[in-house]
């Protein structure tokens, strides 16, 4: 008699409570990484998230996996903010402006240095979200230049560097105290991007490849 193969099991979706727990862990980790750095104890993250240690390790087998998830989720939300602005108004410069301010809200400047110090920068998940982020910024900048909104002598690297530097707390200050001023300084930078340019920029616009060089 022919052998009857068992029907393949359907892949089960994570339960809603499991997804909520994962989101709580990522949110708590993001907050604590910003406040204390990437070496904060995982049991402290679990406590802030309101879950047990076992739940943290069930979702993230090691610290690198959790840090990577936090960085990727922050970059995804920053990209989503720019995409939403572009969909709502069709205004490329407004989308660029939304991206810059969303990066500050997400504390991306405090989190991204962890990428080079804690785990593989070439992990596929990180590469994918980084390419989406860089691609979106390049797209909105090209559209803003074509519309005469953006000065032609700036590049993607200019925006990424300024967004990181202007939203990063200066040495000796706390992250929370500097939040009052980050958006003010970022808006000054954004206004300086508008065309027509009032001055000539020294040097050449940094590219994404320039930023990746050691």
Automatic annotation (TrEMBL):
Pfam family of the protein (one): TetR_C_43
PROSITE patterns in UniProt: HTH_TETR_2
Keyword DNA-binding listed: yes
PANTHER family, per database record: HTH-TYPE TRANSCRIPTIONAL REGULATOR BETI (PTHR30055:SF234), HTH-TYPE TRANSCRIPTIONAL REGULATOR RUTR (PTHR30055)
Protein name: TetR/AcrR family transcriptional regulator
Record keyword Transcription regulation present: yes
DNA-binding region: 41-60
Residue ranges of coiled coil: none
Domain HTH tetR-type stretches: 19-78
Key words of the record: DNA-binding, Transcription, Transcription regulation
């Amino acid at each position: 008699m022919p052998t009857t193969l068992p029907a393949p099991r359907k892949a089960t979706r994570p339960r809603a409570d499991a997804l909520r727990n994962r989101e709580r862990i990522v949110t708590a980790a993001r907050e604590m990484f910003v406040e204390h750095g990437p070496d904060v104890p995982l049991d402290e993250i679990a406590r802030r998230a309101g879950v047990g240690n076992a739940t943290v390790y069930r979702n993230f087998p090691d610290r690198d996996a959790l840090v990577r998830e936090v960085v990727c989720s922050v970059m995804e939300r920053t990209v989503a903010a720019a995409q939403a602005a572009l969909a709502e108004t069709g205004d490329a410069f407004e989308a660029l402006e939304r991206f810059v301010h969303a990066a500050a809200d997400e504390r991306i400047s405090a989190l991204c240095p962890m990428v080079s110090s804690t785990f593989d920068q070439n992990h596929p998940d990180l590469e994918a979200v980084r390419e989406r982020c860089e691609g979106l910024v390049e797209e909105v900048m090209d559209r803003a230049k074509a519309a005469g909104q953006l000065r032609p002598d700036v590049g993607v690297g200019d925006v990424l560097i300024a967004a990181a530097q202007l939203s990063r707390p200066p040495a000796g200050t706390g992250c929370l105290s500097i939040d009052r001023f980050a958006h003010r300084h970022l808006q000054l930078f954004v206004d300086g991007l508008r065309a027509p340019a009032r001055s000539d920029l020294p040097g050449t616009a940094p590219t994404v490849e320039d930023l990746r060089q050691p």
